[in-house]
C-alpha cells in the first residue's frame, strides 16, 4: 500500500471537525518551522538553566498521610511526641573493648557535642550518657537518691568509671542507651521538622551529609564505629544514591539509543529522537524548579519514565517517516503526513499517560502526590516535544539512505511471523486465546490473595539486606533490648489530671491488655515511672509498687517525670509500645487491639488516641495505601477508558483495549505477592504508571487497524497491515524499554531494582496483550459490525 493510500487511511477515520483541527495545526506548524524551532530553542535554554538549580528534596511530613486521624493526632501533640517519632539513634561502638574507658567516654562526649550543634537537632530532647536528662534514681534507707549518670565530678579515674557503671545500672539504661555487651552506647537524636530560625523545612540531604562528615567520618578515622538508624538516615542514603540512579539512567539511555539505531539503521533519526527525549526530561526538570518543586528520592526515577514515554511515541514517528519516505515522499512531505496520522492517537495516548499519573493524587501521601505532579508535568512537556518539535526536526533531517534501504527490505519481506500472528483474529484462535487469558486471570487472582500492604522485611526495605543502613539496624536489634519499631498511643486527659487514680488505672489496664497482643514486646509510659517512684518512697517494699488512690501520693510520684513521658500541663501521657517488627500484620493487630479497648472502656474525659512513633505512622500509611489502592485503580481504568472511548467512539473497542491492561495489572500484583513485595510508597505508583504507559500500545495499534478497516480490508488483513508498521514499533518499544529498565536489577537500591522488575513485567505483558489479546477480543466483539 503506497504512502498516499496510507495518508487517506489516516484522514478517513477522523470526523470532519477533528480533521479540520488536524489540518489547521499541520499547516500552522510546517509553514512556520523556523519560528517553531526558535520558540523551542528559547524555552529549552530558559528551562535548561532553571534545571541547574533543581535540588533533591525530602520532607518527613510529605512521607506521611497528613489527613489521616492518626497523623492529625501526632501533629497536634508533636512537641511531646518528637522524641518517639522523627528520631535518629546514633550508636557509638568501641571495636576494641567496652565503653567504660576514659578514651571512649571522651569520644562519646565529643560525638554528643558534635551532634548537638548540627542544625535540625532538637537539642532540648537530645539524650546520651553525657546529657543532663540522663538521670539515675535509687531507693535507700535515707530515702530517694538521684543524679546524673555521668556526674559533674567525673575525672576518668578507675573509681569514677566504676561509679558510671553503677549509675548506668541504676538508671536501667542497659539495653536502651548502653548495649547489652557494654561495647557501644546510644545517642538519641530527635529532629525538628522546621528550622526554628529560618522556618524552612529540614533539608535531610544536608543534615545527613553534616552527620556523615562531622561524626561518622571523623570518628571512623579514630577507629570508632558509628552506626545511624532512623528515618532521616534512610532519606539521606537515598539522596546520596542519586549518583547511582543517574548512572543507571545514562546506561539505560545508551542501551535504548543502540537498540533504536539497530532498529532503524539511521543515525540521524536516532540522534534527533534521543535528543528530543532528553530535552523533554530537561524541560520537565526546569519547570519543576520554576514551580518550586524538588526531586525527592521516590520521584527521582520519574525522568526515566518520561524518557521512556518519549521513546515509545518517537518510535511510531520514525516508523511512519521511514514508510512514507520509502514510498518516495520528501522529508517535509513525510513529516507532514506522519504528523497528520499520529497527532490524534499520539495526543490521546499522552493524555492517557497523564491520567495514569494524575490519579495518584487521590492518595493522601505527599511524596506520591508530588510524584504525580512531577510525572504529569513531564507528560505535558512531552505533548509539545513529541507532537510538534520532533516532526519539525524530522522534516529537516529525514531518514538516511541506509535507513531507507532498511525500510525497503522490510517492505519486500513477506512477514511470515506477522502473517501467522495475524491468525489470532480467527474465531478458533481468538476464542482459545481469550479462554487462556481468563485462566491466567484466575491464576493471578489466586496468587494475589497473598499480597500484603506495607513493608514485609526488617530494616529499611528500600535497601538491600547487605546495605550499610540495614547492617546498622541489625546491629542495634542484636545488641540492644529496645526495639526500633515503636507504636505510640496518646493517653489524653483534662489538664492536670493525668496523675489522677482513675486515669492512671485506665492507662494501666490498657498497658496490660496491650502486653497480651502478639508482637508487643514491652511498654513504657509515665505510669511505670509513677509506680517506681511510689515504690522508692516506701523503702523499696515491692507491695507498694502500685498506683495509689491518694492524690497527694500520685502527684508527688509524678514530680520530675521525663518530658518525653508527659506534657508540661499533665494533659497528655504518651504510652510507647515496643514491637517485634513493623510488618503489616503486626501493625494491624496492634491497631485493632487499641480500637477494641477504646470501644470496651469509654473513659469519658479520658481518651486513648492513635498513633505516633515510627510504627504508628507506618500503620496510618498502610491504612491510607490499602484504602487508596482500589480507589486509584478504579479511577485510572475508568478515566483512561473514557479517553479511549472518546478516541474510538466504541465501548467494545474500549473493552478490547483495556482488558489486556487489567490482566497485566492482576499478574503484576500476583508476582509481587509471590516475591514478597508489599504494596507501599515505592511500589504503588508503578501500577498506575504501567497502565498509563501500556495503553499507548493499544491506541496506536488499533488506530492503524481501524484505518485499514475503513479502506474495506477484512479484519485479518487490516491487522496484518497494522503489524507491518505499528506492530513492529510496539514490539520494538516493549522489548527495548524492558531491556532498559532490566539494568536496574543491578542497582544497590532495592526499591529501584523492585520498580525495574515490575516495569519490565508491565512493559512486556502490555506489549503481548496489545499484539495478541487486543485483536482477538476486538475481532470477537466486532464480528457483527465487520460483517455489515
Briefly, what is this?
Residues 274-396 form the SSD domain. The protein is α+β, with helices and mostly antiparallel strands and 788 residues long. The chain has helices at 3-12, 16-30, 33-51, 69-76, 78-81, 102-116, 158-170, 204-220, 231-240, 242-264, 267-290, 302-326, 331-358, 366-397, 401-412, 416-421, 427-447, 468-479, 501-515, 526-536, 551-558, 584-600, 613-648, 651-675, 684-710, 715-742, 750-781, 783-787; strands spanning 87-93, 135-140, 143-148, 184-190, 225-229, 486-492, 520-524, 572-579, 607-612.
Low-confidence stretches: 1-13
Strand order of the largest sheet: 7-8-6-9
The biggest beta sheet is recorded as: 4 strands, antiparallel
Q: How many separate domains make up the residues?
A: 3
What kind of oligomer do you see? Answer: single chain
Q: How many alpha or pi helices?
A: 28
Give the overall shape, derived from the CA principal axes: elongated
Task: Classify the secondary structure makeup into a structural class.
Answer: alpha+beta
Average pLDDT over all residues:
83
Strand content: 5-15%
Q: Please bin the fraction of helical residues.
A: 55-70%
What is the alpha-carbon Rg in Å?
32 Å
Number of strands: 9
Distance between the termini: 24 Å
Could you describe the 3D structure shown?
- With 788 residues, this protein is α+β, with helices and mostly antiparallel strands.
- The chain has three domains: 3-31 and 241-450 and 650-787, no CATH class; 87-190 and 202-236, no CATH class; 485-619, no CATH class.
- It is 63% helix and 7% strand.
- The protein contains 28 helices and nine strands.
- It has helices at residues 3-12, 16-30, 33-51, 69-76, 78-81, 102-116, 158-170, 204-220, 231-240, 242-264, 267-290, 302-326, 331-358, 366-397, 401-412, 416-421, 427-447, 468-479, 501-515, 526-536, 551-558, 584-600, 613-648, 651-675, 684-710, 715-742, 750-781, 783-787, and strands spanning 87-93, 135-140, 143-148, 184-190, 225-229, 486-492, 520-524, 572-579, 607-612.
- The strands form three sheets. The protein has a four-stranded antiparallel sheet with strand order 7-8-6-9. Strands 4-1-5 form a three-stranded antiparallel sheet.
- A hairpin with a 2-residue loop joins strand 2 (135-140) and strand 3.
- The protein is elongated.
- The protein starts with a helix and ends with a helix.
- The relative contact order is 0.12.
